[in-house]
Amino acid sequence: MCLGVTSLRSHKRDNFQLDVSDIHIEENQAVSIIGANGSGKTTFMETLLGLNSSEARNFSLWGMNIRDFEKDSKNKANLGVQLQKSQYHKEMKISDLVGLYKVVYGKSSKSIFGALNIEELMPLKYEKLSRGQCQRIDLYLAFAHEPKLLLLDEPNTGLDAKYQKTLSDLIKQMKAKGTTILMVSHSAAEIDVSEKVILMENGRVKFFDTYAQVVAKSVGKFKLVARCVDQKSFNFVASYIKSLDDVISVDIDTQQLNVIVYLQTNILSKLIKSFGDDVFSNISISECGLNDIVSTISNCREQQ
CA 193: distance to chain centroid? Predict the structure, then answer.
């Protein structure tokens, strides 16, 4: 096992507290942390790294208690970290930053250097970099020494389509070499390379399972959107849908005469057969995904 979390709990602040326990991530596994804004994804990562104050920080890395692990600075070479808030002196040249990095870690992958096109950034000062260029530097510094564990916080942020593809390829290459990856994700591409997903809600782990299972458990397999032609039809359809056993949640929009349903089975043909085409001005069904999970959680929080 690479990472075993017994208890991870931040200090309570603004009515929010991270409280995570019993998370086990195997070696050479990729795990994505997902959830709505403010659910605790970044706090999870920062508390894990000891970057904020905590009430409990009990976990192991490769079977070694975190306190013993951190006593030996050589162990930190096994970690690669990319955070949202990384910042260097604005006058520092990228060539100096890369050179310092090589001295600290003693190695630097030429292939990763080339894949992220760091060469073109070498003459520049840090303050001259765009958001995307900063992200490429941060990713290079996390990946280049080929660590055993990568901790990434929204690694796709600021990257254009070309470098998003590059990042996806690099993650796959690192996994092929045995690296374990834990990343905060807002991207389907990141989740696609993950064996498991952690769904955060209000500072807690709501689900920890495969992506397909997390989707099915949290919002169901399908999303049906039906707009009715009049109020009478809308009332009948909404009442009927609410009575079904396999419905996870129903969102009713009385002004637009819209019914949005998350459920486990495809009821499109059943609905049309029961009511006919003429009661709907529009009706569609699709498989649920990441956006549905996040929007459903966000809506629930707004209603609380």
Answer: 12
